[in-house]
Amino acid sequence: MAEPEFTATGVRIGRRLRSLTRAGEVRISDGRLRLLTSYGSVIDSAPVQAVRASKPWFAPEDRALADLNGTRYSLTLGDHDRAPGQPGQPGPPPARRFIEAVRRAAGRGG
């Protein structure tokens, strides 16, 4: 198995008003996006070409939406997964890093 292209842990994953996990994992590897529980069980999985990732309007920088297999999931990615930037400067917001990773993996640029 190849090295994951994107991984975020401690992610709150929800569907509509229901929380599915408060400490889940989002992983992009081998051309698939996987949403996992804190125990490693798969919540949902889809090829990245079929995933639509976006940022809701007026939402904090750590919120993103992901549409997989016709189901919309809300993701709250914590700052603890933020990529290190230049010394003394924070990296890009977690939601933007996730959306860009989905676009790169799907070959749509980013």
Characterization of this structure:
The protein has 110 residues and is mostly beta strands. It has a single domain (6-104), classed as Pleckstrin-homology domain (PH domain)/Phosphotyrosine-binding domain (PTB) (PH-domain like), CATH 2.30.29.30. The chain is built from one helix and seven strands. The chain is globular and about 30 Å long.
TL;DR?
The chain has 110 residues and is mainly beta.
- How helix-rich are the residues, as a percent range? 10-25%
Query: For the largest beta sheet, what order do the strands appear in spatially?
Result: 4-3-2-1-7-6-5
Please name the fourth-level CATH homologous superfamily: Pleckstrin-homology domain (PH domain)/Phosphotyrosine-binding domain (PTB)
- Based on secondary structure, the structural category is mainly beta
The dominant shape is globular
Please state roughly what percent of the residues sit in beta strands, choosing from under 5%, 5-15%, 15-25%, 25-35%, 35-45% or over 45%.
Answer: 35-45%
Into how many domains do the coordinates divide? 1
Q: pLDDT average, as an integer?
A: 88
The CATH class label is Mainly Beta
Radius of gyration from the alpha-carbon trace, in angstroms: 13 Å
Per DSSP, the total helix count is 1
Order of helices and strands: EEEEEEEH
- The tally of strands reads 7
CATH topology: PH-domain like
Mind summarizing the main beta sheet? 7 strands, antiparallel
CATH architecture: Roll
Low-confidence stretches: none
Ends: how far apart? Answer: 24 Å
